[in-house]
Amino acid sequence: GAGVSQSPRYKVAKRGQDVALRCDPISGHVSLFWYQQALGQGPEFLTYFQNEAQLDKSGLPSDRFFAERPEGSVSTLKIQRTQQEDSAVYLCASSGHPNFSSYNEQFFGPGTRLTVL
Amino acid sequence: RKEVEQDPGPFNVPEGATVAFNCTYSNSASQSFFWYRQDCRKEPKLLMSVYSSGNEDGRFTAQLNRASQYISLLIRDSKLSDSATYLCVVNSMGNTDKLIFGTGTRLQVFP
Fold it and tell me: Do A31 and B8 lie within an 8 Å CB cutoff?
């Protein structure tokens, strides 16, 4: 079956350029997460959507980072005026409806590897 | 101090060896615990959940000690295919359900 897909898989940007990264979650999944994974590190939480509502954006590193999910399915992570420190793999994950009594497994996409020159 | 800490390794072990990974977490309110596996240049995938009672899945055994805020993973009879990075993960649940990852421990199994 179709898992989480992300595009592009690789993106090279010149410093100062804007980029947009796309995530297609598993169909019907309510929750969508973005994580940033720097080289040699574990993924770090950026932001969370429940349907179209962005309920947590506490992990976004600066106001250059913006995420949206206008129709509650596809999500876009936008980075404005990219800097070299933005170079990382950006992972998207989706899961079913949050259930406060148990954990809903998050399924990860393959990631977008962003390199800022 | 990172919220989830683990030894980055690498752990280099021969096939058939038993290897153990540990991690500690700082938020005592954490409610769920996991080990994820990440192959080189791939996405993380859930290996197993971790419970206080301990749980086993084939050659893999995970254990949680809430009092010490300590999580472990034991791999018996290592296979070449076990070579990967093992991520210790904590989920605080509540409104967000976000995952907090450790840095990962790299395992290399050699013939």
Answer: no
Between B43, B102, B104, which is nearest A111 by CB? B43
Please state whether beta strands A5-7 and A44-50 pair in parallel, antiparallel, or not at all (unpaired). unpaired
- B40-87 per-position pLDDT tens digit: 999 999 999 998 888 999 999 999 999 999 999 999 999 999 999 999
Q: Do A103 and B49 touch (CB under 8 A)?
A: yes
Q: Do A45 and B98 touch (CB under 8 A)?
A: yes
Contacts of B87 in chain A (CB under 8 A): 42-43
**Tens-digit pLDDT profile for residues A2-57:** 899 999 999 999 999 999 999 999 999 999 999 999 999 999 999 999 999 999 99
Token match 């309510």: residue? Answer: A30
HEC readout, A49-105: EECCEEEECCCCCCCCEEEECCCCCCEEEEECCCCHHHCEEEEEEEECCCCCCCCCC
Query: Cα distance from B100 to chain A (closest Cα, Å)?
Result: 7
Find the distance separating the first CA and the last CA of chain B, reported in whole Å.
37
